[in-house]
Design a protein that fits this description.
It is a single chain. The chain folds into 2 domains: 118 residues, 3-Layer(aba) Sandwich (Rossmann fold), CATH 3.40.50.300; 261 residues, no CATH class. The chain is built from 18 helices and 14 strands. The chain is an alpha/beta fold. The longest helix has 21 residues. The strands form 3 sheets. The protein has a 6-stranded mixed beta sheet, sandwiched between helices. A 5-stranded parallel beta sheet has the order 2-3-4-1-5, sandwiched between helices. Helix 18 links the parallel strand 11 and strand 12. Helix 9 crosses helix 15 and helix 12 crosses helix 14.
Length: 414
């Protein structure tokens, strides 16, 4: 990313590296544990989430190669055996999706010498990485996912945002906080770089401006069910193109689609996934929201706050190696809507999200109705607990619901 400051880029990079090394990531324990179990560890996540810094800090004794560098990439592509022969004891291979042919050769090395933690890989493209792992490295690789900073991690930085809408506006990508840069300005550059580098390579798009328009329209639908026909119409593309472009955003770890939760005892469930961006700051940048005050009074503030809360829940689960696929949403055509449902061992945690700073009685209506429906229909799944996350700062237990403030989510298990 070039802000016209290329002459000081090395200084900024050095400052970033020093700052990040001084801050712990919550995924570190799980990452090190994985390296004690299987010969290959793959760390995935969006660009600039801090993957390189984390693996270099955790595995400082290993040789490091960045496959974004053209010379390293060509060597690995043209002579994969010779390239890997440089590292008999293993190495850290960064941005490994650049050379997908390496996976087959890594499989052979892992079978010949299955010593745990031999190769540490990172990657920023979910689609091809998932396919390569499934085809070549199944049973030999431990996969961990690193997302932008959780709020508890963000608090390690001096002068971190502390008020609700400042936190949601800034998002969690670490570089702006590490180098003291405005997060909104940095995110604008991030969007352009992502589209120019990753989208152009993945999809070979001729008109990148159309895809950027699509991204902004998708950001306006964060926290809503996915309607591909309507999204495609608004973007001026077909239903299938809209589906494909959403898959590109998923491949870059920029969005996720919460699947619907439903049972077979009623046909009233809405069975569309719910769209959430992985970073609330990115949503704000795409929507042209530049200040916390603008966000606080924006008509989408509730949806953006919900996206931030979902992000915090997902980060906790990934940091503790809990499956993201256990997180759902629920909505009926008429009636009950639950923002987040977490299902584990036939037990549900139901989560309602409200951006208001004062708890109102109607905040509990959906949770109460859902509890009643489960009881009436005698499903094999029980409701373990109910939680309400809101924009205030006081905890309480009310109507059997655990009410928790936005700034204390990291204190609870998800």
């Amino acid at each position: 990313m070039d802000y016209g400051l290329s002459c000081i880029a090395p200084i900024v990079s050095q400052t970033y590296n020093r700052c990040m090394k001084a801050h712990k990531r919550l995924l570190e324990h799980s990452l090190l544990a994985a390296a004690q179990q299987l010969p290959i560890v793959l760390l995935t996540g969006p660009r600039q989430a801090g993957k390189t810094t984390l693996v270099r800090a955790c595995f400082a004794d290993k040789p490091y190669v960045n496959l974004e560098a053209l010379d390293s990439r060509e060597f690995a592509s043209d002579d994969p055996r010779g390239f890997l022969a440089q590292f008999p004891e293993g190495a850290v291979l960064d941005e490994v999706q650049q050379v997908p042919s390496l996976f087959s050769y890594l499989q052979v090395l892992a079978d010949e010498n299955p010593r745990p933690g031999r190769f540490i890989l990172t990657g920023s493209e979910n689609l091809s990485l998932s396919q390569s792992v499934t085809q070549s490295l199944a049973g030999r690789v431990a996969v961990r996912n690193l997302l932008p900073l959780a709020y508890t991690e963000l608090q390690q930085f001096p002068n971190h945002p502390a008020r609700l809408w400042e936190v949601v506006l800034a998002g969690g990508f670490p570089r702006p906080f590490a180098v003291g840069m405005d997060a909104g300005e940095w995110l604008e550059g991030y969007i352009g770089t992502y589209v120019e580098r990753d989208v152009r390579r993945l999809a070979n798009l001729g008109d990148l401006s159309a895809f950027q328009t699509f991204m902004r329209l998708a950001a306006g639908r964060t926290g809503q069910e996915v309607n591909l026909s309507r999204l495609g119409n608004d973007a001026g593309v077909s239903h299938n193109t809209a589906r494909h472009w959403l898959s590109l955003l998923e491949a870059g770890f920029l969005i996720w689609q919460l699947p619907p939760w439903f049972t077979n005892y009623t046909s009233r469930w809405v069975k569309a996934p719910k769209l959430h961006f992985t970073d609330s700051g990115l949503v704000c940048a795409l929507l042209g929201i530049h200040t916390a005050q603008q966000l606080e009074f924006h008509p989408l503030r509730g949806a953006i706050f919900e996206t931030w809360v979902v992000g915090e829940i997902m980060k906790y689960r990934l940091q503790h190696n809990r499956p993201a696929r256990s997180v759902f949403h629920l909505r009926q055509t008429r009636g009950v809507e639950v923002d987040v449902l977490i299902e584990e061992a036939n037990e549900l945690t139901a989560v309602e999200v409200k951006s208001g700073q004062t708890v109102a009685r109607d905040f509990f209506d959906n949770l109460t109705a859902f509890e009643k429906q489960l009881a009436e229909n005698a499903t094999p799944i029980s409701l373990k607990q109910q939680r309400l996350v809101y924009g205030g700062e006081a905890s309480q237990l009310r109507l059997g619901v655990q009410v928790m403030p936005w700034n204390r989510l990291g204190e609870y298990q998800w």
